[in-house]
Amino acid sequence: MIRRTLVVAGLLLLAIVLLGPELAPHSATEPVAPPYSPPGTGGIFGTDHLGRDVLSRVLHGGRPLLLTSLVSAFAGAGLGAAIGLVTALARRRWVEPVLMRPLDTLAAVPPILVSLLVLTAVPNRTGLILAVAVASIPLSARVARAAAEQVRGRAHVEAAIARGERWTWLLGREVLPLVAGPLAADLGVRFVTAVYLVAAAGFLGLSTSDSDWGLLIVEALPGAALQPWALLVPVAGIAILAVAANRTAERLT
């Protein structure tokens, strides 16, 4: 019962974020009250430094952050899982050093630094998705490889290899059903990382929209003493979104 409740709550929160622009009482750029108005005067959470409704801006900025994080997480986890599975099942010794050694080197670099290096070359949303995906590939590859190595020695997998089954059949019918749980859990972790990296990019000025939650944090910092809700709401939104997504992924596996 508790497990089902957590899944429903997480999915409900994700749905609210996706529908945020439709639920927002005002546009993201419309001044509705004097700057730094307290809660109740200019809305539930007051207004920002330009008099815009904090709640509306948060609702408008959630969807771009969520979608960008989802695409980045799926891309990074998918590519990483493919590399890890191939490495674990390959019979030739040269496959592992060719595929995994570069990823081991990449894993030693902090994800935020990897993201900044990629964004320097491609400073747009496509570059942001690519940056987050590249930062996610090494760890996803390790998880997939470890999970596949645990099932590689099973009789049905060895029999399929001995029969000369194609790689696509081997992975899809024999291996993936056994490692789907760990891969799904890893996807949840990659999504949480993606949320933080996308928000960090907005904090550094490489936002996904004009109401990106990272950008809202930057704009709210100078007036935090006057209107703390303008800072607390996007910070809480990032934390709650990440936790809800992670818990939902864990309960679904």
Describe this structure in words.
α3 packs antiparallel against α4 (95-107), α3 (54-89) crosses α6 (125-152) and α5 (111-121) crosses α6 (125-152). The protein has ten helices and no strands. It is elongated. It has a single domain (2-252), classed as Orthogonal Bundle (MetI-like fold), CATH 1.10.3720.10. The mean pLDDT is 84. It has 253 residues and is mainly alpha-helical.
Characteristic terms for this protein:
mainly alpha; 253 residues; 10 helices; 74% helix; MetI-like_sf
Task: Give me the secondary-structure topology.
Blueprint: H1 2-18, H2 20-23, H3 54-89, H4 95-107, H5 111-121, H6 125-152, H7 155-162, H8 167-203, H9 213-220, H10 229-252
Family: Belongs to the binding-protein-dependent transport system permease family.
Membrane topology: Multi-pass membrane protein
Domain ABC transmembrane type-1: 66-244
Provide the CATH top-level class: Mainly Alpha
> Which fold name corresponds to the CATH topology?
MetI-like fold
Helix content: over 70%
CATH architecture: Orthogonal Bundle
Mean pLDDT, as a whole number?
Answer: 84
List low-confidence stretches. none
How much strand content do the residues show? under 5%
Task: Give a short account of the largest sheet.
Answer: none
Query: What shape does the CA trace take?
Result: elongated
Helices and strands, in order, run as: HHHHHHHHHH
